[in-house]
Hints:
Blueprint: E1 2-6, H1 15-28, E2 33-37, H2 43-50, E3 57-60, H3 64-73, E4 81-85, H4 92-99, E5 103-108, H5 112-127, E6 132-136, H6 144-153, H7 158-164, H8 174-182, H9 186-189, H10 194-220
Parallel strand pairs: 1-4, 1-5, 2-3, 2-4, 5-6
Amino acid sequence: MQTIVLATQKGGSGKSTLAIGLARAAIQVGHTVRLIETDTQGTLSNWQNRRPYADPLVEPIYAARDIAQRLLTLPRDGATLTIVDTASGTSAATSAAIRLADLCLIPARPSIADIESAASTLRVVRACNKPFAFVLNQAPIRGRRIDDAATALGDGSSADLAGIVARPFIVMRNDHQDALNAGLAVSEFAPASKATDEIRSLWQWVEAKLCRGLNDHAKSGGELADPRYSAGTASDADARWDACL
């Protein structure tokens, strides 16, 4: 089983909507997907309550120690992919999820506030030595601001851009919010839409990056992160953002 974690300090970046869209895209190519929600705001849980279908199942898990335990048992339940939707800000649960990720996705809108917040999250991801990629989300259809934001996220290097800024950029489209309101993924709500095409293409990019990560791991002979890692030694109330260190 592989684990994707969506994390960023900034609220409103669209983590939950991306988690839903990617989950459904993965299901459509044969994955058995579980969504884990560590955000007490409950966007995924509320979406599931409105949803007319059972899959993908959403599991709210708020304690850091419980995330590791659940990731250990999910493969026994048949899951091949788990996507973790974290809360904005800092918490032991987010640190634990990052520590156990096969890939961290950092959503960012093309704004200076989001880019600055993405840098804070990136420091944590790098401290945990985890593969990552930025997802430029809720972008305008066109404009210089998109390219400027992508370049800033890639730290000005075209080589960095190819590997760490996911493609395609996800444009702000009403279909995403309308699907969320209906308890659907965008590919269910508007299967022939540009929004669906973008999400499916994003999943293909993410899947390719996951596969490259597995190949690199096999070549290096390294050990996979142990999902039994005791990430819950600090209480959530006084947790440091660098709890994974």
